[in-house]
Amino acid sequence: MRDISNIRNFCIIAHIDHGKSTLADRMLLLTHTIETRGFRDQVLDDMDLERERGITIRSHPVAMLYRAKDGREYTLNLIDTPGHVDFTYEVSRSMAACEGAVLVVDAAQGVEAQTVANTYLAMEHNLEIIPVINKVDLPSADIPTVRQQIEEILTIDASGAMPISAKTGLGVPELLEAIVTRLPPPKTDETGTLRALVFNSVFDAFRGVITYIRVVDGSLKVGDRVRFLGTDIETEVKEVGIFKPKQTPCATLTPGEVGYFIGTIKTPKDIRIGDTLTHAQHPATEMLPGFREVHPMVFSGIYPLSTDDYEKLKASLDKLSLNDSAFTYQPESSVALGFGFRCGFLGLLHLEIVQERLRREFDVDIISTYPAVVYKIHLKDGTSTTVDNPVHLPDLSRIDRIEEPIIRAFVICLNTQIGDCMKLVMDRRGTVDKTDSLDARRVMLTCTMPLNEILIDFHDSLKSVTRGYGSMDYEYTAYAPADLVKMDILLNGEIVDAFSCIIHRTKAVEKGRQLCKALSEVIPAHMFSIPVQAAINKTIIARETIRAMRKDVTAKCYGGDISRKHKLLDKQKEGKKRMKQIGTVNVPQEAFVTVLKSTG
Predict the structure, then answer these.
(1) Average pLDDT over every residue of 206-210
(2) What domain range includes position 162?
(3) Are residues 507 and 562 in the same domain?
(4) Which of 25, 70, 149, 409 is most exposed, with the fewest beta carbons within 10 Å of its own?
(5) Which of the listed residues 130, 147, 182 is the one where a domain comes to its end?
(6) From CA 197, how far away is CA 202, in angstroms rounded?
(7) For the segment 177-191, what is each residue's pLDDT rounded down to a tens digit?
C-alpha cells in the first residue's frame, strides 16, 4: 500500500490560452512520465477538436512519479482542466478530486475574466492555491503588475507567486518542488470502508463504461463487488488502473489515489457523476460531498438531416451524455424537420462542441434550431411553468408575465474601449453596474444582462469591438420579468415551427425582417407567389414575397386580336390563384440549414 503522505492531488486552473496544457506537457517531460520521442504538444488533449481549436474541453487526469530534493518519491496526480466559461462544471468536478490548485496567470495579459471565476471556484472547494506567473520569457511580460493584480483582484498573497516559462521549462522544476512542499497530502479515515468519488466517465465500445474515481477511504481491487450509493447499482470490478497518461492497469487503488475502474456496466446512463462508490458487502453509510449540480442554460433542437439517421443520432447522444454530465436531451418532433431531440447545453461553445463531436466522432449529419433559454411562465390562474421551446409557449391570453434568466457578466477590456463595450452591453438590454481599474491599461466592467442576449454572437461582437483584447465570464443570478413575445414565421399562411422564437418586443421587427429576407433568398420559386411573413400573435410585423415562376403561355399566340393574349393570361392568373389556395410550399432541407446558420 502506498504511503498517503507521498501523494499530492492537484489541478491546473487558468484563463483560456494562459498555458495550462503547455505546463502539463512540461511536467510530464520533467517527471519522465512521457519520453521525449513520444511527446507532442498538448499531449493530454486527445480529442481532434481540442487540438485544432487549441483549447481543453474535457478534464484529463495523469499520475506522475517525482523524486523530490528530500529523496522521497511522490505520486503527483494532475488534472488538466478547461479554461472556457462553458466548461466551468468540468473544472468544478475536477476540483472535488483535489487538495490543491496551480493557478496560472499570463505574465503579459495579466488576470482575465476566467482567472477570477476559477479562483473563486477553487476557494469554494477550500483548495490550497499556488499562484504561477507564466510566459515570463515574453518581451511584453510585466511581472510586478501581475503580482499586484493577483493580490488586489484575487486577494491571494503574491509573495509566493512563482515566475515560470512552461514553454522553455524555466522555473518548472522549482514549481514541482513547491507542489510537494506547499500542497497538503490527502486525508482518509482509518475504518477501511471504501468510499470513492466518481468525477468523470467515458464510454469504450469494447470495454463498456470506464469510470474515473478518486479514492477517499479504503481500497479497490479486481474482483471486488461494488455499489454506487446514489443509484444503488452494483457491479463487479474487472480492472482498476491509473493514468500514465494512458490507462495503465494496477493491482489496487488505495486512499488518495486518482484512477479508473471497469465493471460490467454497459449502459451510459447508469453512471452519475458526483456519486459515491463503496463495497457492496460492507457499504459506507455516508455519501461523499459531491459538487454543484449543473443545469443546462441553453436549449436547441437537434435533428438528423436524413430521417434514416434518427436511431443513429439517438445512440450517439446516449454515448455523448455519458462523457458530458451537463448535456441533456429528450425526443421532440417538428412539422418542418421531422423527429429529433431537444438538447440542453451550458452555453454556445458547449453547443458548438457537441454538434461538432456528433459530426466527427459519430458521423451524423445534423441540423439545429435556434438556441433558447429556459423561461418561467406565470399564468393568470396563479400557476407557473417553464418553457425552453417556443412551440410550447401557452396562449398569450393566459399569460400573466414571462420571466427570463439574468446573468452577471464580467467584461475585461482596454481603457480606450470602455465606450464601445458599454454600448454593446446596452444594445443587448444590459446595464453596467460598476467599473474597476485592473491596471494602467485595463478595466473590468460588471454588468447585468439577460442570458438570451448573449446567446447568438455576443462573444464575436465583443472580440470585434475590443480588437481581440476583450474577455468575458458570467454567472447566473436570478429570473426577472421582461416584455417577451413569441414570433412565428409563416410561409403561405402556414406557421413553420422550426423558426419560431421567443424574443423581446423591441427587437422583434428587426429580427422578423432579417429572417423573412433570408428565407426569401433561399426558398426556390414555385408556380405561385409565396408570402414570407413574421407575426406576433397574428399581427404581421415583416413580409417578403417569393415571386412566382412564370410560364410563357402566350408563346404560341401569333398575331391576331390582343384580347386572345389577355384571355390566356387571365386563365393563367386564375390557375395560380387556385394553386396558391391548395398548393404546399416545398422548403428544401438546405434552406433550413442555410437560414438557421446565417441568422443564428
Answers:
(1) 83
(2) 4-182
(3) yes
(4) 70
(5) 182
(6) 15
(7) 999 999 988 887 767
